[in-house]
Specification:
Elements lengths: L2 H19 L12 E3 H9 L3 E3 L15 E5 L18 E3 L4 E3 L3 H9 L1 H32 L3 E15 L7 E17 L5 E5 L6 E2 L11 H18 L7 H10 L7 E4 L14 E5 L3 E6 L5 H11 L8 H6 L16 H10 L8 H5 L9 H12 L2 E5 L6 H14 L4 E4 L3 H10 L8 E2 L13 H13 L6 H28 L3 E2 L8 E2 H8 L16 H5 L1 H13 L6 H5 L4 H10 L2 H18 L3 H9 L2 H9 L11 H10 L16 H6 L1 H14 L15 H6 L6 E2 L2 E2 L3 H26 L12 H27 L1 H9 L7 H10 L1 H29 L4 H4 L11 H21 L7 H6 L4 H4 L9 H15 L5 H33 L3 H21 L6 H16 L4 E3 L2 H7 L9 E4 L19 E5 L15 H10 L16 H9 L3 E3 L2 E2 L4 H11 L5 E2 L12 E5 L4 E3 L2 E2 H16 L8 E5 L3 H18 L1 H6 L3 E4 H4 L4 E7 L4 E2 ...
Parallel strand pairs: 10-11, 13-22, 13-23, 14-20, 14-21, 15-20, 21-22, 24-25, 26-33, 27-32, 29-30, 29-31, 31-33, 38-39
Antiparallel strand pairs: 1-12, 2-3, 3-8, 4-5, 6-7, 6-11, 6-12, 7-8, 7-9, 16-17, 18-19, 27-28, 34-37, 35-36, 37-38, 40-41, 40-42, 41-45, 43-44, 43-46, 44-49, 47-48, 47-50, 48-51, 52-53, 52-56, 53-54, 54-55
Helix pairs in contact: 1-7, 1-42, 3-4, 12-13, 12-38, 14-39, 15-38, 20-34, 21-32, 22-30, 23-31, 24-29, 26-28, 28-29, 39-40, 45-46
């Protein structure tokens, strides 16, 4: 056997060894993956499941159905704990078990009848839930890990044999032979559906039989027959009787010593008779690892293929280290893009450079490391890339993949899991999609890479005669490169100006740029800044003429008089209006108006109000009423009375009886009781009391009822008695209403007539009187015209008759007054308009004695005004003559004219004009905006990569087409059409649907074999390839550290390989594992050629590790980290990568999350290998995160570092979250909950890490060491460490650790201590930069360290003066790189140091200082463009400042810089974890101080003021909704006897009527009792009750209910009480009170003191930080007395109102107010609003005024200015609690 075949045979034998490892499906580690029909039948019994599985093989079932099972989510049953165990036994919802601190009580409960019943109920639920959760997890696991599958396994084979040696142990084989792949789906309602897969073929798995005594030929025949049937019928074969016979009859042929048992359930035992076989149908749903299904055939085929050919697969022989292999790893390949593409097009594309633009030709940006990978590929067969987390592996693979496809290469990209490949698929440019074959569905677009989607495009590529216009696109690329170089050239030219000599004029000649500026600074700008125009050389050369013109202008300036400058309106028009105005007539009208005012006895204010009143409305309104209509004057009283009353329907049936009205009213209750007693004596089904019943004493007591006549009938039967009840209730209700009316003062006559109709009429008449009273009072309070009219004429508002007569008597006078006012207003308007013109005019001072004109009372004065206006008009005409003298100077210096008169003659000289000329030079030659230029370069660069992608795709599709000759194209197109047809028919509900699906599957395999690129996981590769070697030009392996030595077989199919991995991340040992004596035996047998090196073939040695052993110098390590912010990757960087990683990601967004946080879960222990409390904490925090808008659009993951059972339980969180948020939401945030290996190759914005260890509760009880097993760092990177590395490097923006142990709970050598230390240690503080002294004369050689230039020194100094203390000069971002210098035509090294890095608000800004004369050459800055492009791509913000711009205007440049810094380092709108999660997590040690958002004192005070304003100042109006309506779902109406009803409407008769709103659905009802017990009931319990049905047991009958409150979420419950006469207070968190389902329970005892006067109060959680010292964990806490001065802050926050003594009585408050008014001082008051809430405010300008209340009585209020609002407010004095005089 040749060496190649020897290694393949070794893989065959290893596969058999693995199969033997899982031969017993009843083993503890394997059994949980199976679901048997026994479990499914229990689900069916509970109406949770519909299935056809129970009919398989034994009954009639419909042939061909794909759906086999539908399963609803089991709901947890209501748990009932008997009264005697309440408070002692609790039900733990998380663990689904009963618990108690008293073990004896728990045993007693479990042995009680109710306990047994409840436990059985929960056990059944747990069984059902376990099946559902198993399938739910399988659904998610399959989504996250494509190597998992779910199958229906049938044909159970059982075999037992005696083990060798002296032992009596039995070796057991229990395994299914046939497996039908299933598709699992989850509906929106979280129902699980299972159906047969339409894409994966059923298969036989018989390796477990290899070493058993069977007839191999018989087995092979059975398997062959099965596979033939599957090829024809697919999954439908399971419905065929032939398959049933195959199991029942043919299977026994493999052994004579065998029996078949005709059962479909799980076998009763996993042991059968020794050396015998037992077969059965025993179908089971099996969740299992997917394995290559055709591996045995594949390896046999490879062996046959290579039997006579040695060393054909060169790369494979290299990988397996075949000693006879002649080839080394070195294998130089031509560079297609330089050698062909560039050479073909270089003639007319001069801007393009071979090395710079064609050495790599990628569609995505790349760095030097990524370029080196491609260079290594060109030189070697195997290229190994060490890619630590987040170093751009996927990005690199996509670049190389597209580049290879463009060269016509056939490429396979593979990995252990789909997850690892999904990331790189997402990065592939979309135009390449049609050339990629993959079965992977992207989460973002599930159909993106579907073959059916690509069919038409593939056909188009083959059929269309497309023009391969590479030449034009290369030309466009050349054009873009030219534009790119042009912009860089502009930068170069601008920088050259900083060094070249310039001549401007005689004063500025032959100077460098910075010298120009230095010279410019020698003269004070006051000498020339008065020149506001651009000074040209022409003006300077003609300066003599200009000087003469300026001198002339200054000499004649006295002719520029003020009058003309002051005229700013049409003075001629105004003069004409004044001449036309009749001023005498105007004065006569004013006199008439004054006479009428005197007659009406009104002043101007009253006149103004009176003219606004609609007098007709007042008359018409008051005419309808009389004073007698008002019985009650108080609006509140009449409104309350009106609302109490209910009108009676006149159409109600009439009743009359022989009872008097007063008799009914007085004996109402007795009648009702006796009626109930009478009815109770009537037998069921009877109308009257039987003959014998009338001899009973009970009857005699109520027999008088038969004498009552109702509607002419005696009340001696059920019907009449029930009518009598109705009648009596109606009379009683009428009596109540009439009594309320007469008590209020209304005169109502009530007779003894008791007929219902007349009493209804009487009541409705009385109600009409009340309503008329209310209508009139309401009108008098709202009708502003009536109110104002009564006030003007001093009429009492309730005297409507007088208001009416007064309005009639003054009607004529008021109409006359309105007429005169109208005329007068028009004339006054004219005068006011003219007065306003003068008031706003510069002429006002000249005419101020006449303004306003409307106030002039003498005609003589008006005439004087006319005369002066005429004189002014004449003077203005004269002044216009001077304006012509300005024309010359205005042409030359138009902007300077306003400043010439104030400019001294000494400053008007030629030198100053030359300085002004220099100033304009600086302005006109402003350096180009490097920031904007960089943006343009970035846009061009983006377009270059887009164009490269288009060129690559054009080349790729052309090469794809060239792989076919004309005949092959036709055949392939026919294949595409056939595939489309079969695919369509297979999706229809037709008879041969499955056969079409099988044909489509075959078509797909044929099509894929022709496509240029495969992207699929390793197992799928083995299922898809044949025996031909080197079918791929290149195989790229991602996450190769997860693949074991089996994957070396990939080398057989490749000419070249690029192997990407990281041996510090999870290795194969976490995924497979087989390492025993048998394994050593097959290694020694088949890998003898390796000699001692065969020890390296281990299950935990990966493809990545093995490849490095033969890769030589082609192994390259990526170091630049792009995924996580630096704070997150720091742990892995330090602990796993020797600080070699270079974190480059910067997040400078406004909503930057806090990168690293820790949450310590208190009272959390390990129970049954699960840390329940930690899981519950994570679940709660996840709910808050998903709800929080801060986390909108963030992807979220949860990774477990705990044990397997802990991880599995943790996964159940997703099931619960799906109920809360829906599956679509969880898909949107890409929520995954997994262990660490499943996350490799994946990432999320936010990661929650479950440490998953805690003190062991069982060991605590048994006094053993409860600390978790240590993870020990012995220098070898074990699996546990690799898992930690993966787990802590997945988060891009935020990582939150949840842990249930503190440092002292871990062993001293436990690596987890480093994890805790990392999450709790403060980041090393950046110290303020200390600026070195600057005393020497500056030159190139004395630049202070660490600066690279004096310019950097000056910028640093200015920034420090601006308050930016944290500055790092010469900040090294990454290693230096080479860039091509187009100016010098050579490669040049460019360092990646930033001149300055400014840190502000935890974010960094790069400052680049360019153009310093003491610095480097100007061309150096050109490379900063490339640097800046790279830095901005990874999140840096870069600001550039030029030396000359800074020298011109330092303050302006620094302000721009500061503005840039502030814009990009805004304080994060981060809600710290403690605020995001409503219950503040308790962290292990003090962390950085964080702030939280709360309602400010100002906000509270404004709320108080609004309430007061509504109460005192605003007239009563109908209240309107201000907020979105929170719908009331129903009212909880509770009576004192414990009965309660859930109703739509509020009850006026119940003791409590509590509204339950939409927002309360997830909340609780608190029931507080006088004995200190508090019951907390789910609101959902109440909402589950039927509406309008009366229930009992609504409260506990033992204690008195004193508090009832609905809370939307857990809050703080405060307790106010007295103890030994002292007032005390304490509080607890309601979350610490267990939730109940029953209302009649007393709940938790929350106070154990000897107490009286207990009162409960709920407080919001946002007060927790202020009241934390008073919020106790233990309910036995005794609380604090209210006079304890150590709690002053808490008392101020709490402001307890429980009979606290106030420091001021009302008399003292009034005295201090009077003193403040007299001394005009301000006061600080504590004020109580109408809701009883208190707040403080400062008041000034105090005064006490009298106001008229709604009731008609006057009261005093304090009028004052409130500094908060800056406006006047009114305050009731009796609500002021405390007062302090302020100076």
């Amino acid at each position: 056997m040749n060496i190649l075949n020897s290694y393949i045979t070794f893989l065959q034998e290893y596969k058999k060894l693995l199969e033997r490892g899982v031969k017993n499906i009843f083993a503890k580690t394997v059994a949980p993956s199976f679901i048997w029909l026994d479990e499914i039948e229990m689900l069916i019994d509970d109406n949770l499941c519909e299935t056809t599985l129970t009919n398989f093989f034994i009954g009639d079932y419909e042939n061909g159905k794909a759906n086999i099972l539908s399963l609803d989510k089991p709901l947890k049953p209501q748990v009932n704990i008997p009264n005697e165990y309440i408070g002692v036994v609790e039900f733990n919802d998380a663990k689904n078990k009963f618990e108690s601190e008293d073990e004896n009580e728990l045993i007693s409960f479990k042995n009680s009848e109710v306990g047994i019943q409840e436990i059985n109920k929960i056990q059944r639920f747990k069984g059902n839930k376990a099946v559902y959760s198993k399938l739910y997890r399988a659904y998610n696991d399959i989504k996250n890990d494509s190597n998992i599958e779910i199958v229906l396994s049938v044909g159970l084979i059982q075999y037992s044999k005696q083990s060798g040696g002296n032992t009596n142990t039995i070796s057991k084989t229990n395994q299914h032979l046939f497996h039908f792949p299933l598709k699992i789906e989850l509906t929106i309602s979280n129902k699980i559906n299972l159906s047969f897969s339409e894409t994966d073929k059923p298969y036989a798995d018989f390796f477990f039989l290899n070493n058993l005594p069977i007839e191999k030929t018989a087995l092979n025949n059975i398997v062959d027959r099965f596979e033939e049937e599957i090829e024809t019928n697919g999954f439908q074969y399971i419905y065929d009787n032939r398959f049933k016979d195959l199991l029942k009859k043919n299977l026994q042929q493999i052994s004579e010593n065998s029996t078949f048992v005709n059962v479909i359930t799980k076998p009763l035992s996993d042991v059968v008779n020794v050396d015998s076989f037992k077969f059965s149908f025993s179908p089971s749903i099996n969740i299992k690892k997917q394995k290559p299904r055709f591996f045995d055939k594949l390896t046999k085929g490879i062996i046959e293929e290579n039997e006579n050919e040695e060393n054909k697969a060169e790369l494979f022989n290299l990988l397996i280290r075949n000693p006879e292999n002649e080839h080394t790893n070195s294998h130089v390949k031509p560079n297609y893009f330089i050698d062909e593409l560039y050479e073909e097009h270089k003639e007319n594309n001069s801007y393009l450079n071979a090395e710079q633009d064609f050495s790599v030709f990628f569609p995505l940006p790349f760095n030097k490391e990524q370029k080196q990978i491609y260079d290594n590929y060109l030189k070697n067969r195997i290229t190994v890339v060490t890619g630590p987390p987040g170093t751009g592996k996927s990005h690199t693979i996509v670049n190389i993949l597209c580049s290879l496809l463009a060269q016509g290469k056939r490429v396979l990209v593979t990995a252990q899991t789909d997850k690892a490949l999904e990331s790189l698929l997402d990065k592939i440019p979309q135009n390449f999609d049609d050339l990629v074959f993959t079965k992977i569905q992207l989460e973002t677009d599930k159909t993106r890479f579907s073959l059916e989607k690509s069919i038409n495009n593939i056909r188009s590529i083959l059929i269309d005669d497309f023009h391969l216009n590479i030449e034009k696109k290369i030309s466009n690329l050349n054009k873009l490169k030219g534009e790119y170089l042009q912009f860089k050239s502009e930068i170069h030219k601008v920088l050259e100006k900083e060094y070249n000599e310039v001549s401007l004029n005689d004063s500025f000649k032959d100077l460098r740029s910075y010298q120009l500026w230095d010279k410019f600074q020698t003269k004070d700008d006051e000498n020339w800044n008065w020149i506001r125009d651009e000074v040209t050389l022409e003006i300077i050369n003609d300066f003599v003429k200009l000087k003469k013109g300026i001198d002339t202008y200054k000499q004649l300036h006295s002719f520029d008089n003020l009058i003309l400058k002051s005229i700013d309106f049409d003075i001629k028009s105004v003069f004409e209006k004044i001449n036309d105005f009749n001023f005498t007539g105007f004065l006569n009208q004013k006199s008439e108006i004054e006479k009428l005012k005197s007659h009406l006895d009104i002043d101007d204010i009253s006149k103004s109000k009176l003219l606004k009143i609609d007098l007709n409305s007042v008359t018409e309104t008051t005419e309808k009423y009389s004073n007698a209509d008002i019985v009650i004057h108080s609006y509140q009283q009449i409104n309350q009375l009106k609302n109490k009353l209910i009108r009676k329907n006149q159409n109600v049936a009439d009743f009359n009886s022989n009872l008097k009205y007063s008799e009914i009213v007085d004996n109402f209750s007795k009648y009702l009781r006796d009626i109930e007693s009478f009815l109770a004596q009537i037998e069921n089904g009877k109308e009257k009391i039987g003959f014998l019943g009338k001899f009973k004493a009970k009857y005699k007591q109520v027999s008088y009822l038969e004498n009552i006549v109702l509607n002419s009938k005696n009340c001696d039967n059920k019907t009449s008695l029930n009518l009598l009840k109705v009648y009596l209730k109606e009379i009683q209700e009428i009596s109540t209403n009439l009594n309320n009316i007469t008590k209020a003062g209304f005169d109502i006559t009530i007779n003894e007539n008791s007929d219902l109709y007349s009493k209804h009429q009487l009541l409705n008449t009385a109600i009409q009187q009340v309503e008329r009273n209310f209508a009139l009072i309401d009108l008098l309070q709202k009708d502003k015209d009536i109110i104002n009219f009564s006030k003007i004429f001093n009429i009492e508002i309730s005297n409507v008759e007088k208001i009416y007569t007064t309005s009639v008597s003054y009607k004529e006078d008021l109409e006359k007054l309105k007429e005169l006012e109208l005329i007068s207003k028009k004339e006054i308007s004219t005068l006011k308009s003219i007065s306003k013109t003068f008031s706003n005019s510069k002429l006002f001072n000249n005419f101020s004695e006449y303004i306003p004109l409307e106030n002039i009372s003498e005609t003589v004065k008006f005439k004087a005004f006319q005369t002066k206006l005429e004189d002014t008009l004449q003077q203005a005409n004269k002044e216009n003559q001077f304006n012509n003298s300005k024309s010359y100077i205005k042409k030359v210096l138009p902007k300077t004219i306003p400043f010439l008169l104030e400019t001294s003659v000494e400053r008007i000289k030629k030198e100053n004009f030359e300085f002004a000329h220099a100033n304009h030079y600086f302005l006109e030659n402003e350096i180009i905006d490097l920031q904007k230029t960089k943006e343009k370069l970035g846009q061009i660069n983006d377009r270059i990569y887009e164009l490269k992608s288009e060129i690559l795709f054009d080349l790729a599709k052309n090469n794809f087409k060239n792989n076919f000759n004309s005949n092959e194209i036709d055949r392939f197109i026919n294949l595409l059409v056939e595939y489309q047809t079969n695919l369509y028919q297979g999706s229809r509900g037709i008879r041969d649907k499955v056969k079409f699906q099988l044909l489509a599957r075959k078509n797909s395999a044929e099509i894929s074999s022709k496509l240029s690129c495969w992207v699929m996981k390793f197992n799928d590769v083995l299922n898809s390839v044949g025996t031909e070697p080197e079918i791929f030009d290149c195989i790229i392996v991602d996450e190769a550290s997860q693949l074991d030595f089996n994957s070396l077989i990939l080398g057989y199919y490749a000419k070249n390989m690029i192997i990407v991995g990281d041996d510090k991340q999870t290795s194969p040992s976490a995924l497979t594992g087989a390492n025993d004596n048998d394994f050593q035996s097959i290694k020694n047998k088949y890998l003898e050629f390796l000699g001692d090196d065969r020890v390296q073939i281990r299950s935990d040695n990966s493809l990545f590790t093995l490849s490095k052993m033969v890769a030589g110098s082609s192994n390259l390590a990526l170091k630049e980290h792009f995924r996580c912010v630096s704070e997150i990757i720091e742990f892995s960087k330090y602990n796993f990568y020797d600080n070699s990683l270079k974190p480059l990601k910067q997040i400078n967004t406004e909503n930057r999350l806090e990168p690293v946080k820790a949450v310590f879960v208190q009272n959390s222990f390990l129970e049954d290998r699960i840390v329940y409390a930690e899981i519950e904490s994570i679940k709660k925090h996840l709910i808050e995160i998903i709800k929080n808008p801060i986390y909108q659009n963030k992807t979220i993951g949860v990774v477990s570092l705990g044990l397997v059972k802990h991880t599995e339980k943790l996964k159940d969180i997703k099931e619960d979250l799906s109920e809360l948020f829906g599956r679509d939401k969880l898909d949107e945030i890409k929520l995954i909950i997994e262990d660490s290996p499943k996350f490799q190759g994946d990432e999320r914005d936010v990661m929650l890490v479950s440490l998953g260890v805690a003190l062991d509760s069982e060991k605590i009880k048994s006094n053993d060491n409860p600390k978790p097993r240590s993870i020990v760092d012995d220098g070898n990177l074990k699996d546990d460490f690799k898992k930690i590395n993966v787990a802590l490097s997945r988060a891009k923006e935020q990582m939150i650790l949840f842990h249930s142990v503190k440092s002292e709970n871990l062993r001293n050598n436990d690596f987890r201590l480093k994890i805790l230390s990392f999450f709790y240690n403060e980041t090393k503080e950046l110290k303020p930069f200390e600026l070195p002294d600057n005393e020497d004369e500056r030159n190139l050689y004395n630049i202070p360290k660490p600066f690279d230039s004096w310019f950097e020194y000056d910028i640093t100094s200015d920034l420090i003066n601006k308050g930016y203390q944290f500055i790092q000069p010469q900040y090294k971002v990454k290693e230096d790189e080479t860039f091509y210098n187009h100016h010098s035509q050579r490669e040049t090294y460019v360092n990646f140091k930033l001149d300055l890095v400014v840190s502000n608000n935890g974010k960094m800004i790069a400052i680049e200082c360019d153009g310093d004369p003491f610095h480097s050459l100007p061309e150096d800055v050109a490379y900063d463009v490339e640097r800046q492009e790279f830095l901005e791509r990874v999140g840096w913000k870069v600001y550039r400042v030029l030396y000359s711009a800074y020298k011109r205007n330092p303050s302006s440049e620094i302000e721009k810089m500061v503005s840039f810094i502030e814009k990009h380092t805004k304080k994060d709108k981060v809600i710290p974890i403690a605020k995001v999660f409503k219950e503040t997590p308790i962290e292990e040690i003090q962390q950085k101080s964080t702030s939280y958002i709360h309602k400010s004192f100002i906000d509270t005070l404004e709320d108080d003021l609004n309430q007061e304003n509504e109460e005192i100042v605003v007239e009563p109006i109908e209240e309107t909704e201000r907020f979105e309506e929170d719908k009331v779902l129903r009212y909880f109406n509770l009576n004192p006897d414990g009965t309660y009803i859930l109703e739509i409407n509020e009850s006026h008769t119940s003791t409590y009527s509590i509204p339950i709103q939409e927002s309360d659905k997830n909340g609780f009802l608190l029931q507080g009792y006088s004995n200190g017990h508090l019951n907390k009931v789910h609101i959902s319990t109440l909402l589950s009750k039927r509406i309008d049905r009366e229930y009992k047991n609504g409260l506990n009958s033992v204690a008195t209910l004193i508090y009832l409150k609905v809370i939307k979420t857990d809050e703080i419950i405060g307790l106010h009480f007295r103890e030994n006469g002292s007032k005390k207070f304490k509080a607890h968190l309601t979350k610490n009170i267990s939730n109940r389902e029953q209302l009649h329970l007393q709940g938790y005892k929350v106070i154990y003191n000897d107490f009286t006067d207990l009162e409960y109060e709920t407080l919001p959680m946002n007060l927790f930080s202020q009241l934390e010292r008073l919020v106790y964990q233990s309910f036995t806490a005794t609380g604090k007395t209210l006079d304890n001065s150590n709690y002053e802050k808490e008392w101020k926050t709490l402001k307890p109102k429980k009979d606290l003594e106030l420091p001021f009585n009302s008399q003292q408050i009034e005295t201090l107010l009077q003193k403040a008014i007299a001394e005009k001082k301000s006061v600080k008051v504590s004020y109580k609003n109408k809701e009883g809430q208190e707040s403080e405010r400062i008041l000034s300008n105090l005064n006490i005024i009298t106001k008229n209340g709604y009731s008609g009585y006057d009261f005093e209020v304090l009028k004052a200015d409130c500094s908060l609002r800056g406006t006047e407010r009114h305050f009731k004095i009796d609500r002021i609690r405390e007062i302090e005089l302020l100076d």
